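Re: your question from the hallway

Yes, I did run it. Sequences:
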Amino acid sequence: MDKSTAISIFEKMDEEQIVKADKAVKQAMVYTAKVNGEQTQEITFVGIKHLILQLAVKDNPLEILESRCELQKDDPDDRSTWHWRAYKKFRNINTRLESDGRSECPFLDNGRYDAFAQRKADSKAERNAQRKQIPELVIKEFLKSVNSDQIQDVEKANVKKETQLCTCPPDRRIPSETIRPDGHLECRHCSCKISSLVSEEIIKNRGK
Ligand SMILES: [Zn+2]
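Structure:
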């Protein structure tokens, strides 16, 4: 795809959709993270889906050529060595451009069975393959169109998760099913940890 096609695709969707999109939608499409000490912006899974849809609308739909996701057991007796390994290959029906993506996800998450592991590996391989179908220029312009104050900061969210206590009223608090390594439950509403006292109480009540 040449640059002018890329730009025209972007302009249409930018003007009509992204600019008018509310904060939540933009937040879902872009995140920032520090890579090698440098603050960078990256497009999320949702953002890539959005751009792929825009391509399809402009007569550039993707067809899937290959899709695999296998559980590989490096040591059959040791589940911590098991991984879901996914591979996807797409082709742009119009330009014939082919791209592929791989991903893997451990079978266990912190020593426990992860019911979503297969889907995670699958989705990430799909994202990696589809991202290569979007011209870099389109991604750059897309990232530029989102103001920095509207972007979720992965790092800040993580710091919040690690240190701050949940102050949600009990009826708004959403305790996580899993227990954090530090023994606290996490609040799915505010992403903060729930105090030890309340965590213990919830865990105790679940045991009944
Ligand atoms: Zn909370």
